[in-house]
């Protein structure tokens, strides 16, 4: 069974940051194996965006849990 790890990243949209910065960061994370599964508008990130990412991790293949 495949296992995944998750990451939540917020991107506040200010004059110094924007969609281009968000795209560059997500491309960097993509090169590290992260995949964006969802993006939402984020009130707690100063009216920005929150991206939810996942990537596969090595783990037991017999279905047993390490939790």
Write up this protein.
The chain is built from one helix and three strands, in the order βαββ. The mean pLDDT is 84. The chain has 67 residues and is of the alpha+beta class.
Radius of gyration, rounded?
15 Å
**How would you describe the shape?**
elongated
Count of DSSP-assigned helices: 1
Oligomer: single chain
Structure summary:
This protein is of the alpha+beta class and 67 residues long. The protein contains 1 helix and 3 strands, in the order E-H-E-E.
Topology of helices and strands:
Blueprint: E1 3-11, H1 19-31, E2 35-42, E3 48-57
Antiparallel strand pairs: 1-3, 2-3
Task: Describe this protein with a few key phrases.
single chain, alpha+beta, 67 residues
């Amino acid at each position: 069974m495949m296992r995944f790890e998750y990451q939540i990243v917020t991107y506040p949209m200010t004059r110094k940051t924007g969609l281009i910065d968000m795209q560059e960061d997500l491309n960097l994370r993509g090169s590290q194996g992260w995949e964006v599964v969802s993006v939402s508008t984020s009130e707690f990130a100063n009216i920005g965006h929150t991206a939810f990412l996942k990537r596969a991790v090595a783990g037991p293949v017999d279905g047993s849990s390490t939790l």
